[in-house]
Amino acid sequence: MKKTVTANDGYPLISYALKIEPNIFKGKSPKIMLFYIQGAEYDTVLSKVGVLAGSTAIGASVVVLEGRGIDEDRNIDVDECYGYSMKEIRIDDHLKVINEYLKDIDSNIPVLIMAEGEGGYIASVVATREKRVTHLILLGSGGGWRRAKEFEFFLSKRSGYFGIHNLEELNSIFEDIKAQPDSMKMWAGHPYVMWSFYLWKRPMDYLEKLDIPIFVAHGDKDENIPVESARAVQNRFEKLGKDNLTYKEYQNMGHYFVNLSDGLLMSPLIEVDILEWMEEHQILSNSQKTGFEKRVKNAHPEFFD
What we know:
The protein is α/β, with parallel strands linked by helices and 305 residues long. It is 39% helix and 17% strand. It starts with a strand and ends in a 6-residue tail after the last helix. 36% of the residues are buried.
């Protein structure tokens, strides 16, 4: 179901409430509100429907927000996408959409945010600003390091990363971005105006302020965001004595949770871990968790004994 929400600057934001099983609520309120935040890719958010479909089966209303520059026919104006890729615009847009969908929802219903990749930064900020958010799920988002440090780390491991062969070249690009923070000049697939917000900030600065349950999943062979960045989140929480973080690391998985040995998408393993986390935090009952877990395992016997 499509809904257009007017952004603070007047831009028409296209959002969708996913209902794979149209009559699942039968006039009743959803059991869970789940808001998904996309990564930094310039593609329709509807490409994620298949991954998110299982969430509707647990009684969740899944809300996704289309990026600016992508219309209701899924046509993509890349220049417009670039122009609106700034962090604060994305944060404000998601806050606006969340507020719109929650205004008629019972305050006792759990409100989850799920984010992937760079979307994890947006989600971390949104979760600190929207007090109705009760749970946070970050997939392949790193979070413990600044993006600049993540680039430096990859360069130390792989000379020629993004066509850069030494730290001096990388620092030269960083200085150019600092000098032109509003520029549409491109680097590594994104304009400077986007990088100027992401390179020197880290989700951890917001995550450590949260007391809500947080689930962090990361592949140990992630080629876009190093697993060391995600491990740094876990280490920081342990150092602070905070016990609201669940960290799961998946062996031989890349950024999109694809097994690097056989190319299989390993999301069923993550789904089961998330179901167990939901039961632990009383989003699902034991019987609900068991039923949904059985459904996942029956659908993907290749992953489970």
